[in-house]
Inverse folding.
């Protein structure tokens, strides 16, 4: 299962209506080498809610508040594991 399939078939339906849960899914993938074409495909996917579409695009845009938030979640998780 590719990460795109995972987002569409597992993460999106699991976290619909719960932003905190959705951001935890994004935290897992935000630092991976994701192509712009894959992000664009997810942005246009009918499997995602409008909020999920916008937030996934912003999570992969350098300098966006969403990316900063998701990255900050990563830092907290990494520090807790030390």
């Amino acid at each position: 299962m590719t990460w795109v399939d995972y987002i569409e078939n597992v993460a999106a339906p699991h976290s619909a209506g719960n932003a905190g849960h959705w951001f935890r899914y994004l935290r897992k993938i935000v630092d991976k080498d994701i192509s712009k074409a894959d992000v664009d495909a997810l942005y246009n996917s009918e499997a995602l809610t409008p909020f999920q579409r916008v937030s996934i695009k912003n999570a992969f845009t350098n300098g966006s508040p969403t990316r900063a938030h998701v990255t900050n979640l990563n830092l907290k998780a990494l520090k807790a594991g030390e």
